[in-house]
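Translate sequence into structure tokens.
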Amino acid sequence: MCRWYEFYGLNEYNNVIETIIQENKATDYYFELKVILTEAITNAYKHGNDHDPSKVIKVGSMMTGGLLELQVVDSNDKNSIVKIPESLSDDNLLDASGRGLFLIKSLADTVAYQENTLFISKKLRG
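Result follows.
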């Protein structure tokens, strides 16, 4: 069963990340999960919610047989197309967008974006 957290703006995201890590007994993966969730939540706030602290961000987490499945949902009502970069070149290393998704893809096992939801999975055990 997926456990959901809702918050507005970026004031509560650290507490949500800490809770997800603790509840899933994932402290061995603390750094990776902290980066993955920080980047995903920041992207939801900046790009999905247009920096609007009155719009909700939802984060879902579910552990299934050693696989942590995460969902980060923004309040975007547009059907945006998000491209998850396969790599970063020296030319676009300092671009304002794309690095966060690239980091998530590098640290997670799978990443996909559909409508206003980023789906992430990370194998933690086994």
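Note: The chain is about 30% helix and 25% strand.
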